[in-house]
Design brief:
280 residues; mainly beta; Jelly Rolls; seven-stranded antiparallel beta sheet; 4% helix; binds 4-deoxy-L-threo-hex-5-ulosuronic acid; binds zinc ion; RmlC_Cupin_sf; 4-deoxy-L-threo-5-hexosulose-uronate ketol-isomerase activity; EC 5.3.1.17; zinc
């Protein structure tokens, strides 16, 4: 197995406006998450979130520390959220095995020394999407299945934004330090996520789009509401949303995405809303 590590620095909104397409993609897009028997992790200095993907195929894959963390093990000072977007698999945390089916989640406590990922069926490997953030204390490791989620229905077909939001690893469901994660699924024919959109300078966010047909795309919007830019995204790619940025997208078909947040509060409803006709 291999670990592929990449580091991104935080960026000022006054500089961001001068970025061209390539530079925007370099700073904010995480283009590859899932590669056989590999842990791919991107460390963003925006709230120090790590965004990554683990796809075990032929072997069990271990979450190993990287030199940049200067930690004896990956979760020495961090908590971890895992959501499986592939076939059924297992996550073993210090000897305890958790069966994680498609669209199920696992919260892993700070202080967990050994985290190992495996797929149940090689021909349909698990794809574990991960977010990890600094943690000041240990909260219990826990699996969160679809039935444990807090579900919210949003939007309408008339405005092409009908979607089901599932809060998985959030404060209403279980205890975490700062990490909050969930999944939003667009209804067939609906293409707009997070519209009307919002910002929340108290928290950064990362989005990972999946279940998007390979020949389709999502146009992701970012930036201060009056200075937006777009990043065209493919299936199973992630994008970093700095604290000053909105995050919304429109697809050429429907899709599902995972959102993950980190920052100074756990209040999902803390948002500064922006109406579509206010955007520039
Ligand atoms: O701060 C919250 C996040 O942006 C997402 O949860 C929004 C979302 O999934 C949606 O509206 O579709
Ligand atoms: Zn948000």
């Amino acid at each position: 197995m291999t670990t592929v590590f990449d580091e991104r620095f935080a960026c000022h909104p006054a500089d961001y406006v001068n970025y061209d397409t390539e530079r925007l993609r370099q700073e904010f897009l995480v283009p590859t998450l899932f590669e056989a028997d590999t842990v791919r992790i991107t460390y963003t200095h925006v709230d120090r979130m790590i965004v990554g993907g683990v796809m075990p195929v032929a072997e069990e894959v271990k979450l190993e520390t990287v030199d940049t963390l200067k930690a004896d093990y990956f979760l020495e000072r961090r908590e971890l959220g895992v959501i499986n977007v592939g076939g059924p698999g297992c996550v073993e945390v210090d000897g305890t095995v958790y069966e994680i089916g498609t669209k199920e989640a696992l919260y892993v406590s700070r202080g967990s020394k050994e985290v190992k990922f495996s797929s149940n069926v090689k021909s349909s490997p698990a794809k574990f999407y991960i977010n990890s953030t600094p943690a000041h204390r240990a909260c219990p490791t826990r699996k969160v299945g679809q039935g444990d989620a807090q579900v919210i229905e949003l939007g309408a077909s008339e405005t092409c934004n009908q979607r089901t939001l599932r809060k998985l690893l959030v404060s209403d469901v279980l205890e975490t330090c700062q990490l909050q994660m969930g999944m939003t699924e667009l209804a067939p024919g609906s293409v707009w996520n997070t519209m009307p959109c919002h910002t929340h300078s108290r928290r950064m966010e990362a989005y990972m789009y999946f279940n998007l047909p390979e020949d389709q795309a999502v146009c992701h919007f970012m930036g201060p509401p009056q200075q937006t830019r777009t990043i065209w995204m493919a299936n199973e790619q992630a994008v970093i949303s700095p604290t000053w940025s909105l995050h919304s997208g429109v697809g050429t078909s429907n899709y599902t995405f995972i959102w993950g947040m980190a920052g100074e509060n756990l209040d999902y409803g803390d948002m500064d809303h922006v109406q579509p006709n206010e955007l520039r």
